[in-house]
Every structure is written in C-alpha cells, then in structure tokens.
Amino acid sequence: MISFHHIAIQTRDLDNCLAWYRDYFGVEEKWTLDKFSPLTLSRLPGITRLTEVRIGDFRLHLFERADLAPDPVAERAAQFQHVCVATESPQELSVRRDRWIEVFESENYVFARPDHPTEIVIDDEGIQSFYLFDVNGLEFEFTYTPVG
User: Is the dihedral of CA 128, 9, 13, 29 positive or negative?
Assistant: First the structure.
C-alpha cells in the first residue's frame, strides 16, 4: 500500500509564501534546508531554501527558486490544476472565503494573481465549493460534501 507524503510548491519568495500559508492555513513550520544534493540541484536549478510545513497530517514542501519567472503558470499548461480542501461544515466555507479577503486586504503579501475567491456555489448533489489562489497563483478548491 502507498500513501502520499507531501505536495511541493515552488515560489520566487519563500518568506512571502511561508508567511501567507501560516496566516491563511495556520500551518506549522517543521524544518528548513539550505543545502541540497547534486540530484536536487540538477532537477531544481536555482533552489535556495526548502521548508516543510504541516497542517494536521498534511505536508507541504515550500521551496524557493531564484530562477522562476515572476508570472503564474499559464492556465493551459499541463500541471496539477488545483488542490481540494474539505471542510466539516458549509459555514467553514464562508469563514475560509472571508479569511482570504481579510488576508489579501492586509496588503502584507505579494500575490501573483490578485483574483478574489469565487462565490460559493452548490451543485445538484448539494456539494458546496469555491476557489481561490495562493500568493504564487496556485489554485485551491474548498468544498463541503453533505453526509448521506
């Protein structure tokens, strides 16, 4: 049996990215590296730092690359399109959406895409969701699926 260990997110500004993930998601910083193997350096030219953060059992590896282009990934590029985060209640969707707006309006962070979160929608099965972008322009979906 296998299990997923982490999702890696590359950024041009680790301090900005790490601060946003702490402020928005409440992640806990576990460790940071600034020395890398020849394999890592060949795969990720320009890597300067890597920090693991966790929220519960979920890990993210945030890593800074000096050579990244300043603009977000093209919408039509082959990539992970979004990461979905489940909430325990429909009220939590509103809280998460409002929190993103609060964090954005603080002007403490530089966003690659200043798009506000979408409205919360409900599909035919009663599943509620909305979408937002992190400071790097990576998309997250927040969803609530009713039980039963």
Answer: positive
The residue written with tokens 């928005």 in the block is 24
Question: pLDDT tens for residues 11-44?
Answer: 999 999 999 999 999 999 999 999 999 999 999 8
* 112 in Cβ contact with 68 (< 8 Å): no
Whether 132 contacts 97, CB under 8 Å: yes
Query: Model pTM greater than 0.85?
Result: yes
Q: Rounded to whole angstroms, how far apart are CA atoms 34 and 58?
A: 22
CA distance linking residue 145 with residue 90, whole number of Å = 8
Cα 35 to Cα 38, 52, 61, 125: the distances in Å are: 10, 14, 15, 49
* CA atoms lying within 13 Å on the CB side of residue 147: 3
Between the CA atoms of 66, 35, 50 and 82, what dihedral angle is there, to the nearest 10 degrees? 70
